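call fold(seq) -> tokens
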Amino acid sequence: MSSKRPWMPWYPGDYIKDTRHLTLIQHGSYILLIGEYWMRGGLPKDEMTVCRLAGMTTEEWQSNRDVFLDLFGPNWTHKRIDAEIAKWDAMSNARKADPWSWRPTRPAIPTSVRKVVITRDGFVCQYCGTENGKFEVDHIHPWSHGGADTPENLTVACKPCNRSKKDKTLAEWRGRK
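ret:
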């Protein structure tokens, strides 16, 4: 079965806190049930179908049913997963409406740091050596990959080199240039 929600947020601390009392078999069945809940947006109301989704025989289900009833609400609802599905759906709808709205925006490199980099490198592109044109301060290790706004990670680049490099690492960029 394919899912419109291909991944599920997982909070191990909360899971362990809520399920420490479960047996190994119960953990496995509970994970199957919350995975089905996530993919389907809920569990079926028919208890025998829930039993099959939990991977249990009827006998196993009868002896473990009350444990699962304590973890789910009435009609096999789950408040935590419902809240996570609502967050996912809101984020997904926002991305569909404006595909770039969810991306983090990078704050401007502080002017004091820019001055240090320009003073160090001069108005010379550190990638191609040109001394003509418009120059920009570029992240050597891209900001989108965790690169810092420090002079050690910044360099002067001509506009064509900077725009060509985009958010690639130097190795990626030089390999594809």
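The domain at 111-176 is CATH 1.10.30.50 (DNA Binding (I), subunit A).
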